[in-house]
Amino acid sequence: MNLIQEQQLKNFINGNWVEPSTGKSTSVINPATSDSLVQVPLSASEDVKAATKAAKSAQKKWALVPAPQRAEVLYRVGLIMKERKERLSQLLTMENGKVIEEARGEVQEGIDMAFYMAGEGRRLFGQTTPSELKDKFAMSVRAPVGVVGIITPWNFPIAIATWKSFPAIVAGNAVVWKPATETPIMANELAKIFEEAGLPEGVMNVVFGSGSTVGDAMVEQKDIRVISFTGSNEVGRGIASKCGQHLKKVSLEMGGKNGVIVMDDADLSLAVEGILWSAYGTSGQRCTACSRVMVHESVKDELEERLQKEIAKLSIGNGLDESIKVGPIINRSGLEKVKSYISIGKEEGAKLLTGGYILENGDHKKGNYFAPTLFTDVKPEMRIAQEEIFGPVVSLIPVKSFDEAVEINNSVEFGLSSSIFTQDVNQVFAAQRDLDTGIVYVNAGTTGAEIHLPFGGTKGTGNGHRDSGIAALDVFTEWKAIYVDYSGKLQRAQIDVE
Question: What is the pLDDT of residue 2?
Answer without folding.
Answer: 75
